[in-house]
Amino acid sequence: MNANPLNYEIIDHTADLGIVVKGGKIKELFVNAANAMTDLMVKADISEKGIKRKLIVEGEDLPDLMVRWLSEILYLFSGEHILVSAMEIGSINPTRLHSILSVVSLEKSRHEILREIKGVTYHQIAVEETGDGWEARVIFDI
Amino acid sequence: MGVKIKQIDEWRYLIPKSGKMRVPGLVFSSAQLMPTIKEEQSLLQVVNVATLPGIVNYSLAMPDIHWGYGFPIGGVAAFRTEDGIVSPGGVGYDINCGVRLLTTALMASEIRPRIKDLVGALFKNIPTGVGSRGKIRLSTKEEKKVAVQGSSWAVKKGLGTNEDLARTEDQGVIRGADPETVSERAYKRGHDELGTLGSGNHFLEIQTVEEIYDHEIANVFNLFEGQLTVLIHSGSRGFGHQICDDFLKEMGTRVRESGFDLPDRQLACAYINSEIGQRYLSSMACAANYAWANRQIIMHWTRETFEKILEISPRELRMELLYDVCHNIAKIEKHAVDKKDITLCVHRKGATRSLPPGHPNVPEIYRTVGQPVLIPGDMGTHSYVMAGSQQAMVETFGSTCHGAGRVLSRKQAIKTARGRAINRELEDKGICVQSRGKTTLMEEMPEAYKDISLVVEAVHMAGLAKKVAKLRPLGVIKG
Description:
Largest sheet of chain B: 8 strands, mixed
Structural class of chain A: alpha+beta
Order of helices and strands of chain A: EEHEEHEEEEEE
Largest interface: A-B, 38 and 49 residues
Mean pLDDT of chain B: 94
Shape of chain A: globular
Oligomer: heterodimer
Number of strands of chain A: 10
Radius of gyration of chain A: 14 Å
Largest sheet of chain A: 5 strands, antiparallel
């Protein structure tokens, strides 16, 4: 599941960890951002088949929606010990997102934990359309 | 980042009031520390905090200031309770992240050959690392008791003594914690994490007292040269992270609805007097109490491990709690402002309380010399014990620094560490390390942090706390 490294870059932030992530379309951007966050936390096999699970997220605008979307996936990881192995976004607008996730149970024997993310922050959050697609900037609390 | 700053004296720098700032910024630093601070965005964060309603005197920064999210790390800000705000981002995700220092009757030189065994046993007995699940499983009903009672919950379960409570900031409990204000998600995350160290910069360290600066205070703190000590650095785990997350989102929505213009969305806040402000303070108290119980339990297992591995009795070991401080917290305190005592909500985000001699909140045994202030270094460098001062009451609402403060980003640290065996480098320096996370050692390498001696010197010289002793690491367990 580890994201194509070209999709995101780690940015310098002294205390914590930030990423700039790209996607051709907005749906792709949200999927890539979630994959990037997971990639920072765990090393796992991309081909794992999981159980389907529906996730609807609501926000006030795209940056808020991005923080809430990533926070939901982070909660599954830290609160329910569930790893999202794949996802599909059915529909998205600036205040609502429908997705179907493929989830597997987090097991230390198969999934190598790299680092803990405590939270997805709003600090300098940005979701913007660029000349060649979409770009988001997210800073995580480590 | 274009922040105007002018030096007032050798240890103080002023950011004059401009734009939407309600008060000026005051940064405690030094000529050696200032250049790296200027390179990043933390000074802009000092400015942003100065724009928040009800802020009193200054938006303050300690010498370990570095770029955080929302508030700078090393930031201190006090808000009037009647018209000021409370901000979850001004406390942080790891509510009541803090440290406790244990003293022993042993000399480090006697134990030196056993350090590796001790580190191995501690690593086995104290769950560490991401999502580490503890040996304790709590029902929600029991978790609510932890949230209300703090350290005393652990003591009632036989995991410590009443003496431990007397030597913990606020006796290991913030009053007014209402467990009904905490989300189901927080309880779910917290039910199996009590008694776990966590990861990132959290650690448990076996140390020795290398140098005493103030013999009189060191005597009162029961510290002596060559002594074996243990430092525990941990917080409220997923329970606290979730509470911060829940309130940031709720307050963020309310702020936008009210049309209040924040310079950074992470500064989401609410008036202290509002329903949500009170609810946050109550939930935050639950997380703070969870953190104190957590460190209390880790300490108990540390005592057990030492007794077992060294095959000595508690009486011979005499592993006593010197003190426990929190360094991510918002507290309702009374302080003198313009010669009047007023009630304030003091945010310490990566800052430690520093109470002077004679203060009623200093444990009786330390009251003549001031509150023990514990400043952890990173895993390869020294930690310091200091004593609280009157000057801190005058200038910083009784606060001082909390650690070294990062200087390299995690990205830079990994780049610097690439191709190197950090644990072997530490071993060469006489420090035995065991860690769980693969990237932790690289991200937390000694070079990633400022020189802690410069930070400690700056607060000592500014008078915000007094140097008492320097501790050198011998063994570390990390998440």
